[in-house]
Amino acid sequence: MKDFKYFLFDFDGTLADSQLFWSTVYYHILKERGYPVTEEDYDFCTSHFSPERKAYLCEKYGIKEEDFPTRPECLERIDLFYRTDVTWKKGAVEFLNTVRAQGKPTVLFSATPQPLLAHAVEHLDAARYFDYIVSVSELGIGKGDPASYRHCLDVLQAKPEECVMFEDAPYSMKTAKELGIYTVAVKERCMDFQMDEILCYCDEYIETITDWLDA
């Protein structure tokens, strides 16, 4: 494992096997409402951005704007998933245990709204793996804003070149890399359609997070 002083981790799609649910939440809600959604619809949702998913499902099933699942409804459904069903991705716990055993300071740095993130962390008993847990919702900015990463650096009292960030979303990788943070992309099937951007912005791409233990 490469020698960095500080470790930053994204949550959904990197450590938690939850990005798929974020990508398919429209599908799940419509299915629960009785719409005859198909495997083809599910696959479409996993390979397109949210506005495209919405447009596709509205057109296919003749759903009016006012009848489509709202953001609060989607967040409520995701929150239920976090409280009851979210699991770690393969190798995540092994990797985190290794990092903790080495005494490396760690930050969980997520774009997930703080109340939802707290429920997921509680369900997974994840707080023990991190020195700090940061949701950008508390900062009022996104992970595309360099100030969000600077906040993590300030919390750690770290320099960018001392840090490594594990991510699955290319827009966040771009921010980290431009600040000088070493950026490792962890494979997530819902991000495969953005592979060109991922490979452009990451310093390293791995299939599972434990692959980095042998790096």
CATH class category of the largest domain: Alpha Beta
Terminus-to-terminus distance: 5 Å
The CATH architecture classification of the largest domain is 3-Layer(aba) Sandwich
User: What multimeric state do the chains show?
Assistant: single chain
**CATH level-4 homologous superfamily of the largest domain:** HAD superfamily/HAD-like
Task: Tell me the radius of gyration.
Answer: 18 Å
Query: In one word, what is the shape?
Result: globular
Structural class: alpha/beta
Largest sheet, strands/sense/barrel? 6 strands, parallel
CATH level-3 fold name of the largest domain: Rossmann fold
Walk me through the structure.
It is globular, with a radius of gyration of 18 Å. It is an alpha/beta fold. The protein has a six-stranded parallel β-sheet with strand order 3-2-1-4-5-6. The protein has two domains: 6-17 and 87-214, HAD superfamily/HAD-like (Rossmann fold, 3-Layer(aba) Sandwich); 19-84. The N and C termini lie close together (5 Å). The chain has helices at 19-32, 39-45, 50-61, 71-84, 92-101, 114-124, 136-139, 146-156, 170-179, 195-201; strands spanning 6-9, 106-110, 132-135, 163-167, 182-186, 204-206. The longest helix is centred in the N-terminal third of the chain and has 14 residues, at 19-32. The protein contains ten helices and six strands; from the N terminus they run E-H-H-H-H-H-E-H-E-H-H-E-H-E-H-E.
